[in-house]
């Protein structure tokens, strides 16, 4: 086969790509002879697998997956051309695609059956809290999709005779091949004849993508020993493996006419189901033109992500889309020069001096190093004025070099190496780096680096193993340990020095979780001064010198021009320095980004104002007086920095640079134009490499769950870089991440190159079934637009007209509701034989109402099961709003009850387990009786259940019995809650084992706007030492809720929980 060599210019990296094209979603025609697939985001057709495939669709959107109809004359496919995943059909003879679905919810195609029509999954007005989807079909004779099953799932496929529907249930993503746990995807069977459900696979690994071989036999992918292989299963129960791949599993397949087509890595293979050993490798060699420009000349305005000022105050370094530009600080000049000019990530630039800029770059492809940009014009040392520049390697070491910060005297450079090592290097007279001193080498990182005015100390904030962030001061000579100056269990960060050496300001959330401005007195003497002494001075201070003559003053000014300002060495009294803290602000909301005036008298910071939607810049005296707003209108100032003379403040506002003059309070805006070359292929290479390094350096398990991460990256790289779209690239990358078998992971790309329509669907809160004369309402969700008191629909109503247009079966009902959110829509209907009109204003979302519907139904069931003795609380998420609702429900649902049922099923996690434990951990130690409640204190025993919790505790309290519910869709912090509930013996845990997905995660934005999740912290059960990641919380009593229970309004798990709690209440000593 021919080889195509692509060399990324200047990377020192040559990648040889086979001419074989990476195509996806390939499907066989019903006769097994032709092939359709997705490439470059379009649908292609390869008739008889002869000649060359040709393109069927041509659109900026991503088209795929796809399915043939039974005759092989049409193709149905998914496409996001209207902003979400809709379904279209296309005649192979030609013509335009026909849109089949019109709903803002994603519609995921799975089958095209000759009688049942197109089958797909979606989430419209039936799913409430569950993680599975609704199953819909588009009848061949009716344009409006209809939900055809009361159970939930995904990927429904109908047997050839239409009697059986195979579908998937479970929430583990398919890319986790070697996941083994309660949330695995299993294959179920729905018998349309008797409307029964049966689990066809019952194990702990993913079984996915079922297809029918015949009316009694399924073929699907099953994760055998961590790799997907083809498995055959008869409805009678016999099974056999069709493949046995161990290195690279199968990620997609199709069967037709006794043949099986399957994909491993970027290749497709064709075999006979009767004789799998006879395999043909398909040679899909597409020499297609680019769908989008592979290289573009881009001009950007107001897209600045970072900036740095030159020492002389004339120029500014600007960073935009991974490039470093230089501009001048003249608001009438927008021209910039690109100093880095490279497709990889160039960032965190600063002036080493007025003629040299250094920055961090990964242009060599394997780590970040420091590079320098200088002028090569001997007559023009000014980088902005010079038209000749040179970029060269400045410094490299073993680890990534990031976050460089030059000392005020220009003689030292602080930086972070390898992610966590804080280094300080000597800057020699020739600008090169000399001796390097390591200040901090630990698991945690020093953030918010700030040089002291005398260049002898660094202030920074860093975490301890309890993840408490503190502010430290450390001498840069490396001879002493860092000193904790904040010393509080709250988070303290963003230090900033006053130039006079009197104060170090920082932000702290120690006061009611509000981020406020604080500072520490660096000298004990300053701290002990009274207010009068600060204003007037000590009695024994030296008398001020007599006024000099005017000529003497002028002479002094001339001398200062020729003499560099001398900076006095700081005097810091470190003993008990944390005792000298002062709080400056105490407003509601959060302050951030503090600067201190040279004399230490005034502090500048940003905060949200009550009157605007964004934040603004403020100033305040160090004693908390004279708060003044400096910018208006919610400018969202970011990265605030002093100008050269400390008479004004520069900041970024929505991507543009601005300057605030502190004298006249005038704000000057600068508008820069940044021109660059965008090489999309090289950018993908950079994203691949950087995402690899981020996982390598930050993944919580240094052994990568037993995988060789470096070899995995090498194995997947050529495949990923062959991707013709961002969608395909992320698909491959996430397969690689799946090999780590970890939760909280994923690479996401947003936006992309395509320019698509973004349709919205007005939501009414109903389900309908189309009839010849209109749409019959079959379901109504309470409190949705269709259920408002004066303009309401009812189940059984027949909607006949919308805005005067008559409804019929030939038009999709949901197409009438495109772009109607908030608009008054005239609806004509028939109710009990009479015609009437109502007006409905559709909503953008009905998720809240669907959730409340489910919660109210659970409350009603608990009321029924317990005969009114117990209350019920569902915790939607482990976040502050859900916790506040939990506190409210303790009173609303729990008051007067004998116990409470706490439900964390279908809870996606968060961080509030410890809040909930604090509520449940309360033990009553006394009781109180106020005057007037009892005629005599002799009656005190009647009041033994009462205590002023709301008066004495910052949180609510629950001291009565409880029981908790979890299931396989209890995720992350909901699992931590489940573990804690058992560990701390709060009560019985009922339901199904949880997902097994507990890692603290962060993330990083990448060059092209992509985002990579970064799990960084493990969680273990204190009592057992068990890792909660892939170690689910196992209930004390395990109960299954079968698929049919939802429609029957039954909840066996909830019923068992109620039964157990009532038994415990009635028999407390048992």
TrEMBL record:
Q: Where is the signal peptide?
A: 1-19
Which species?
Croceimicrobium hydrocarbonivorans
PROSITE patterns xrefs: PDZ
Where are the compositionally biased (Basic and acidic residues) regions? 546-564
Q: Which SMART domains match?
A: PDZ (SM00228), TSPc (SM00245)
Q: What does this protein do?
A: Degrades oligopeptides.
Q: Which CDD domains match?
A: Peptidase_S41_TRI
Protein's UniProt keywords contain Signal:
yes
Assigned protein family? Belongs to the peptidase S41B family.
The Gene Ontology biological process annotation of the record reads:
proteolysis
Region of interest called Disordered, as start-end residue ranges on this chain: 533-564
Show the GO cellular component annotation of the record: cytoplasm
- Any keyword Acyltransferase? no
**Domain PDZ intervals:** 753-807
Q: This chain belongs to which protein, by name?
A: Tricorn protease homolog
Where is the catalytic site? 744 (charge relay system), 972 (nucleophile), 1029 (charge relay system)
